[in-house]
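Appendix B, Record 12. Input sequence as logged:
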Amino acid sequence: MRERLRQATGEIHARLDETVGHMPVSSENEYAAFLSAQFAARCAVERALAMQPPMGLAAPPSQAAALAQDLADLGVTPERMPHEFALDTPAAALGAAWVLAGSSLGNKAMLVQRGKTGSKGPERFLSDTGLARYFGGLLHVLDRPHSEADIAQAITGALATFALFEQAFAAVRLEKVA
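Logged structural output:
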């Protein structure tokens, strides 16, 4: 399932990486925007995963508190997504959990990048290791045999999760322009 998820989400994942890649190191304002979008999207996905846990796993550990603390340190009041996000099946939730847990790899890289550029600011979210630990158990579930229906539902959940993050980053961009 892992390879099918990677293939099916490659395009949207690359678009999101292109949008987000520079934000944590370009300026304090961009870093705050990055954290704000992360908070909005993650709160929505975390709520959905609490309502519909992923197949074979508990919901991923929450990062909302770390994000809220980082934003408070930056003097930013976090906002939530204006609409609810739902995951209909355990397989769809597994796809969403894969997106969240996989992002811990990007967070680690961003933390290193911030260190190299001398960027300052709170980094509870980027340095959180809970999702990295969760990722190991998630990979075991993904590597088990799955039905085509479960794979399709996991892909749907992953694509919806990536799309939610795109919406959150677009909203932050629009707020900065206004």
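Residues 2-177 form a domain with the Heme Oxygenase; Chain A fold (CATH 1.20.910.10).
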